[in-house]
UniProtKB/TrEMBL annotation:
Natural source organism: Methanothrix soehngenii
Domain of life: Archaea
Gene name as annotated: rps27ae
GO cellular component, one term: ribonucleoprotein complex
Manner of cofactor binding, per the entry note: Binds 1 zinc ion per subunit.
Protein name: Small ribosomal subunit protein eS31
Sequence ranges assigned to domain Small ribosomal subunit protein eS31 in this UniProt record: 14-56
Length: 60
């Protein structure tokens, strides 16, 4: 009977996550050592990665 429950809210959660990620990138501003030229690394908590070349830097 209640087969339509469960999927609501999934997309909302995903878009919220990306918004938070964008804010974190702005505040960190670590430049990619490979790309340079104002290409910033995306912060993922325990590591940072470049969306352009794929460079990943682990924090300690
Ligand atoms: Zn890069």
């Amino acid at each position: 009977m209640a087969a339509k429950k469960g999927k609501t809210g999934e997309v909302k959660g995903v878009s919220k996550y990306y918004e938070l990620g964008g804010d974190t990138i702005k505040s960190r501003k670590s430049v990619c050592p490979r790309c340079g030229n104002g290409v910033f690394l995306a912060d993922h908590g325990d590591r940072q990665s470049c969306g352009k070349c794929g460079y990943t830097e682990f924090k300690k």
